[in-house]
Amino acid sequence: MSSDAPRAPYADPAAGAAVKAADRAHVFHSWSAQGLIDPLAVAGAEGAYFWDYEGNRYLDFTSGLVFTNIGYQHPTVVAAIQEQAGRLATFAPAFAVEARSEAARLIAERTPGDLDKIFFTNGGAEAVENAVRMARLHTGRQKVLSAYRSYHGATATAINLTGDPRRWASDTGSAGVVRFWAPFLYRSPFHARTGSEECARALQHLEDTLAFEGPATVAAVVLETIPGTAGIMTPPSGYLAGVREICDRYGIVFVLDEVMAGFGRTGKWFAADHEGVVPDLMTFAKGVNSGYVPLGGVAISAEIAATFETRPYPGGLTYSGHPLACAAAVATIKVMEEEKIVEGAAHLGEHVLGPGLRELAERHPSVGEVRGLGAFWALELVRDRETREPLVPYNATGEANAPMAAFGAACRQNGIWPFINMNRTHVVPACNITAAEAKEGLAALDAALSVADEHTV
Predict the structure, then answer these.
(1) Which has the closest alpha carbon to 296: 285, 283, 281, 282?
(2) Could you count the other beta carbons within 10 Å of the beta carbon of residue 440?
(3) What's the CA gap between 367 and 364, in Å, rounded?
(4) What is the pLDDT of residue 9?
(5) Neighbour tally for 66: CB within 10 Å
(6) How far apart are the C-alpha atoms of 102 and 334, rounded to whole Å?
């Protein structure tokens, strides 16, 4: 991609007003009180930027919803979608189709261990649904363990597995889900002082939870390899390997959710590669084709795949392995290889984002902690560094959330579009953002943090 930032085209406020009017009249938005939102009308996007009909351009520090890992409108992927549409726009999932077969092959080449069979879905939530179904059928057990401070999707099983407040309205309390605390040293539920203490105590807590639930009743442990929306808490060294050992000991399926962390986001193809851990099932979506056409999936181990060798798997989707989505995945993976985007994300984290964010933390009392790697970072914003009191209360809304709302408005006024969740802002741009673009974003973040500083004690 050119280092020259794309310019917003001429403004067309009338066109924007028409788009906005149709949206407000007919589009029902997710996670929203419909009468309280004011969605921006987007006119276009390219690379790490998007712009509105007023001619305002924003550096996207959210990369969509953490999925445009190669940026918007990459010409190679756009051309591949166009070519596939002209050749075979769609076909039923029961057939062998070139784009589908090639996408599965390329994904399987990059997944760790023997995760060589790929079940395609339309997105991450469906991937989690099917991974849990596979685990339950494989083990003959029903219970599933998942962590607080997690997000796994909004479908029935996935939302029950989720640990954040978006679960509350849909939690049946009867989905066979048991939650536990995963490690998070900054807000340790185990009163740990070091990473090694946090690791050991978190593993013991998981062992204790299993002991009281009955290991023989548990089908799976489901974890985000690095929790995304919940806060980008990289687990301490040894934790994932410890969970792997516990699962092996009790015959429990280990599921890693790499929907957000996968496909280069952390500076490795998959976040599990940082620890050399191989799960039994791995879910993916988002970065697999940079979100250009909806696609997700489950990478399946040889042992679990064998369960369904002569026994039908009771699940499927009309658009499983859709040719347009798979063609986009093939092109995206090839672009990532040719342009060394995974390596670039690692360099970005080590030499630009990491040092830049830590430098901001030194000057802004509202920053309690900086954590992350690759193109996957979070700033924990606090009122008081000593007590670590969050800048806003947990799940704050309305006036209680005013400090974070003011921070977000300052970001947008300074030309970046922030990813904000509770008392955190995440820095999750395209993995191939240039160093100059990243520094532009850090400068805008610097100015916005001064607004957050006004709410510290």
Answers:
(1) 285
(2) 18
(3) 6
(4) 76
(5) 23
(6) 11
State whether the Cα torsion 261-265-269-272 is positive or negative: negative
Query: HSE of 245 in the Cβ direction (CA atoms, 13 Å)?
Result: 8
CB atoms within 10 A of CB 204: 12
pLDDT at 2: 42
pLDDT of residue 333: 98
Instruction: Report strand pairing: 424-427 vs 376-384.
Output: antiparallel
Residue 334 CA to residue 31 CA, distance in Å, equals: 34
CA distance 56 to 50: 9
Burial class (CB within 10 angstroms; exposed 0-12, middle 13-18, buried 19+) of 307: middle
Low pLDDT (below 50) residues in the chain = 1-3
CA 225 distance to own-chain centroid = 10
Which positions ≥6 away from 76 have C-beta within 8 Å?
A: 331, 334, 335
Would you list the DSSP string of 322-358? -HHHHHHHHHHHHHHHHTTHHHHHHHHIIIIIHHHHH
Q: Tell me, what's the pLDDT at 5? A: 60
Q: What is the pTM of this model?
A: 0.96
Residue with tokens 């947008």: 412
Number of Cα atoms under 13 Å in the Cβ half of residue 118: 26
What six digits make up the tokens of 41? 């009308």
pLDDT value of residue 6: 65
Q: Could you tell me how far CA 409 lies from the centroid of its own chain?
A: 23
For residue 1, the model assigns a pLDDT of 40
Q: Residues of 137-175 as b/e, b for ≥16 C-beta within 10 angstroms? A: bbbebebbbbbebbbbbbbebbbbbbbbebbeeeeeeeb
Measured in whole angstroms, how far is the alpha carbon of residue 27 from the centre of its chain? 24
**Per-residue tokens: 387:** 């007590």
Question: If we measure between CA atoms, which residue out of 380, 219, 230 comes closest to residue 304?
Answer: 219
Structure tokens at 25: 């009249």
Share of the chain above pLDDT 90, in %: 96
Contact 99, 330 (CB under 8 A): yes
Residue 49: exposure state from Cβ atoms within 10 A (0-12, 13-18, ≥19):
buried
The tens digit of pLDDT for each residue in 296-307 reads 999 999 999 999
Half-sphere exposure of 315 (CA within 13 A, CB side): 19
Asked if 44 contacts 290 with a C-beta cutoff of 8 angstroms, the reply is no
Number of Cβ within 10 Å of residue 10's Cβ equals 8
163, 198 contact by CB (below 8 A): no
